[in-house]
Design goal:
The protein has helices at about 5, 10-15, 25-35, 50-55, 65-75, 80-85, 120-130, 145-155, 220-225; strands spanning about 35-40, 60, 85-90, 105-110, 135-145, 160-170, 170-180, 190-200, 205-215, 230-235, 250-255. The chain is an alpha/beta fold. A 7-stranded mixed beta sheet has the order 3-2-1-4-5-11-10, sandwiched between helices. Strands 6-7-8-9 form a 4-stranded antiparallel beta sheet. The longest helix has 13 residues, at about 120-130.
């Protein structure tokens, strides 16, 4: 199974490997959940692996075999007891994970839900997740309001935009550029990613891929949750569970399985 993240798996993992801003939030959600954890769109394990290291039984689902391969290699370096707590499944978010157990916490981290452009698919994801959750279990969704605003500005500019440059000890010096355009799906942007890599040997390599980035309104989310067996609980504006407004950097939504 190939997808757009297989092409950029190494550089994407490098770009976000040190991002830990949301780690305390998921630690708190896990502590409150008291049971197995499911991450949809787990990537290379940035958010899920620390939970497994802290003793939780974890299942990660991702449609990118390349990202899961990185996760598996990272997991192989962990103690056996940590390895045994983690199950990885290569599948899209809509398909329920094949598991005999039900989950106490399910989450979709770091704006991954934005890449699901069709609202019907988002609703199907919530329904699928509900099917493997314990009654009373928690769903947490991380939606980036700041990122949607940035995608709109880049779309309006029509320019290729430099996001940032960093150095990876194995890959070299990496620069990430993007351009954005309106997609045929309403409230969605088509994002073209260019990663220029100056390798250790001085050669320059470019990797490109395209992703979709959809705006997701709070009313739509609440409506979809209520249709699929969830009760909306709260919305927060940041990873510290701060008060939410339309100007908040993020929209952290929690719901309870009913």
């Amino acid at each position: 199974m190939n997808n757009e993240y297989d092409v950029i798996a190494e550089v994407y993992d490098s770009e976000y490997a040190d991002f830990q801003d949301d780690e305390p939030m998921y630690a708190q959600l896990a502590e409150n959940a008291h049971g197995p954890i499911l991450e949809l769109g787990c990537g290379a394990g940035r958010a899920l692996l620390p939970l497994a290291q802290n003793g939780y039984t974890c299942t990660g689902v991702d449609s990118s075999a390349g990202m899961l391969d990185i996760f598996q290699k990272r997991l192989a370096a962990e103690p056996m007891e940590t390895q045994q707590r983690v199950k990885l499944i290569c599948s899209d978010m809509i398909a329920p994970p094949a598991s005999d157990e039900t989950f106490a916490l399910c989450y979709i981290a770091l704006g991954a839900l934005h890449h699901i452009a069709d609202y019907r698919d988002r609703r199907a994801i919530f329904a699928s997740a509900r099917g493997v959750m314990r009654t009373g279990g928690t769903l947490a969704l991380d939606i980036s309001q700041n990122e949607w605003r940035r995608m709109n500005l880049i779309t309006e500019s029509g320019a290729l935009t430099h996001l940032h440059t960093w150095e990876d000890e194995h890959l070299g010096v990496i620069s990430h550029f993007i351009s954005a355009a309106a997609d045929e799906v309403p409230n969605t942007r088509k994002i073209t990613h260019l990663y220029d890599i100056v390798q250790k040997d001085g050669l320059v390599r470019r990797i490109t891929t395209e992703t979709l980035f959809a705006d997701i309104s709070l009313p739509e989310i609440v409506w979809a949750l209520e249709l699929t067996g969830w009760r909306f609980r709260n919305v927060f504006g940041d990873y510290e569970f701060g008060e939410w407004s339309e100007q908040s950097p993020r929209r952290i939504i929690t719901a309870q399985a009913v």
